[in-house]
Design brief:
By secondary structure, the protein is mainly alpha-helical. It is 72% helix and 0% strand. The protein is built from 6 helices and no strands.
Length: 142
């Protein structure tokens, strides 16, 4: 169930708008695994064949759900990488727009227009030479 909650904060899943679906599947699988364990313990304690078959089918279903979720995550992640590469090459789409926003911020932040209140010595000399710092400058954007 913890993975289902953490899926809401995964940037790749958020970008593909799959975070809610992954969260629900992980939470449902966690509940299913708990039910499977409970059924297995009961079947082992009572030595009931019917409960043993139910445990087997439920365990197999949880295995198939977890396997398909893992495979689909790998497929979606490769699709995301492909989308990232194509978006920047074609200069269109959400990825390209995010890149342009980043570049726009790079042109303004730590310049004469908006000096930064940072120690420029922590950066490489190439970056430090292009930075404008000031003790009264911004430390973060709000």
């Amino acid at each position: 169930m913890w993975l289902g909650i953490e899926a809401n904060y995964n940037p790749e899943l958020n970008l593909l708008d799959l975070h809610k679906q992954a969260a629900y599947v992980c939470i449902a699988t966690g509940i299913g695994l708990f039910a499977t364990a409970t059924l297995g313990w009961t079947a082992a304690a009572t030595k009931n064949e019917c409960l043993s078959f139910g445990f087997g089918y439920l365990a197999m279903t949880c295995f198939l759900v977890c396997t398909s979720l893992g495979v689909s995550t790998f497929v979606e992640k490769s699709m995301l990488v492909e989308q990232l590469n194509q978006g920047c090459a074609l200069k269109s789409g959400m990825i390209y727009e995010l890149d342009q926003i980043f570049k726009g911020g790079q042109e303004i932040l730590c310049t004469e227009k908006c000096p930064c209140n940072v120690d420029s010595q922590i950066f490489s000399t190439e970056v430090a030479n292009s930075m404008v710092t000031d003790t009264l400058g911004a430390t973060r954007l709000e």
